[in-house]
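User: Hi! I'm working on a homework problem where we have to compare a predicted structure to a textbook description. Could you give me the structure for the chain below?
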Amino acid sequence: MSGRGDGPEDASPGPGTPPAPARRRGRPARAAEAGPGARERILAAARTEFAARGYDKTSVRGIAKAAGVDAALVHHYFGTKEQVFEAAIELTFAPALTMPDALAGGGADVGERMARFMFGVWESPVTRQPLLAIMRSALTNDTAAAVLRGLIERRMLQRVAGELRVPDPEFRVQLAAGHLIGIAMLRYVIKMDPVASADPEEIIAMVAPTLQRYLTQP
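Assistant: Happy to help. Predicted structure tokens:
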């Protein structure tokens, strides 16, 4: 006998035999995950998850599962949970973020235009529910509130303030925004009558002169 094992159970490499490649641990990568549309799927899943669960109860792993990808891919495209939230709410807020364009040039009707624009966004069922979900997250979580505050300040209020020709323009535009947000809370979140059931045109007619004063009077 040769003394060498000839069966498959003999796994010892002979002299000069290169070592077998190391076996990679973990789940094998799914090439389809990072294919075309992966980022959009993740973003759509994030919007749905944040809207349904709020900021606190949403996780990167949950977003990944809903999008059908690995959690590492979520981090690859967006970074942290906070950054995913910012990207998701920026997409949700897209209709409202065009407000500075609607108010460009100011004028004698800028207060009415601001009120009409915002109620147009809130009255649409397509945009109202995602906005409500974001507001609820901001009311219950400091991180979500900071992200939302930064987005509104940077993309909306600062741009509007830059168009105003009044003292303390940022203060004025924040007062106008606060006026509208307060009414939105009563009407769409708390649903307090008679504000909740009032005709939008009636509300616009009532608040427009106040907004006009904030935005134009010295």
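For your comparison, note the following. The radius of gyration is 27 Å. The first helix runs from residue 38 to 57. Good luck with the assignment!
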